[in-house]
Amino acid sequence: MQRRKKRKKAEDDINPDSWLATYSDTITLLLTFFILLYSMSAVDSQKLKELSESLKHSLTGNTDIAEVEDVTDLKFKTGNSDYEDLSKKLDNTIKSNGLTDVIKIREEDRGIVLQLDESILFDPGKAELKENSREVLETITTIVNDTDNDVLVEGNTDNIPMNNEVFQSNWELSTARAVSVVRYFVGNQSLKPTRFAVKGYGEYKPLVDNSTPENRATNRRVDILMVEQKEKK
Questions:
Q1: Which one, of 125, 136, 228, lies nearest residue 181 by Cα?
Q2: In which band, very low, low, confident or very high, does the pLDDT at 65 lie, cut at 50, 70 and 90?
Q3: Per CATH, is 81-227 categorized as 3.40.50.720?
Q4: Which among 79, 200, 223, 230 could bridge 155 via Cys, Cβ 3.0 to 4.6 Å?
């Protein structure tokens, strides 16, 4: 009788939910592992999927585990090094020529943008390059010559309507300004015309709202985009 009581007491001491703690710890470790992967860089999605499937099969007790390549084969993409080098090169060239207040650099998904205010290049409502804009454009010519990137020149205006004897809207004005810049590169500096493209956005691609004179001045600009080169597959 005493033995039965001891056996019953021993059985009562067993916690049927004790496995939950181990399972919870395992899930937490896996979650930490995947967060670490994504925080480091972009992961090769196909290999990550294979690894995830293998771990899932293992946790469910399925012995038919998917074949996975060595975890060290998971490749992390730390960014386009050529793109980063180009950004540094442009920044150094602009600084060495004392043009940091004249040429602003923006980095976008599509490439690096050299931003020039309207006042540097043109008189209000006109599309003929100012004489004193040549120094700035000569520096940009050096930049373009040092790269193989295609170049997209984009004209932009503020939202004040344009309608004079030459330009009936901001579309025409912004496009004409972009064309004037490309003509300088091709005609005056003998750069290859096949590298260039032109777009005129009018007032429809503002950087800031047009609520103040300062903001409108920011939006009146020519953007010179050094198009990011795609890796050949």
A1: 136
A2: very low
A3: no
A4: 200
